[in-house]
Amino acid sequence: MRPESLFPLFAPIATLKGVGARVGPLLERLAGPRVRDVLFLLPQDLIVRRVSKVASLVDGGVQTLGVTIDFHQPPARSGLPWRIRVFDDTGFLALTFFKGYGAHLAERHPPGVRRIVSGKAELDRLGNGFQIVHPDYLVAEARAADIPALEAVYPAVAGLPSRMIRRFAAEAMGRAPELPEWQDGAWIAKAGWPSWREAISRAHRPAGVQDLDPQSPARRRLAYDELLAHQLALGERKRTQKRLVAPVISKSVRVQDAKAALPFPLTGAQQRALSEILSDLASGERMTRLLQGDVGAGKTVVALLAMLAAAEAGWQSALMAPTEILARQHFDTVAPALAAQGVRAVLLTGRHKGAARAERLAALADGEALVAIGTHALFQEGVTFKGLALSVIDEQHRFGVSDRLKLQAKGGAVHMLAMSATPIPRTLELTVFGDLDVSRLDEKPPGRQAVATRAAPMGRLDEVIARLDSALRDGAQAFWICPLVAESETADLAAAESRHRELALRFGDRVGLVHGQLGPAEKDSVMARFVAGEVAILVATTVVEVGVDVPSATIMVIEQAERFGLAQLHQLRGRVGRGARASSCVLLYDPPLSEAASRRLDVLRRTDDGFEIAERDLELRGGGDPLGLAQSGFPAYRLADPLAHRDLISVAADDARLILARDPEFSSPRGQALLILRALFDWRPDGPIGWSG
Ligand code: ADP
Ligand code: MG
Question: Is 577 in the pocket of ligand 1 (CB under 6 A)?
Answer without folding.
Answer: no
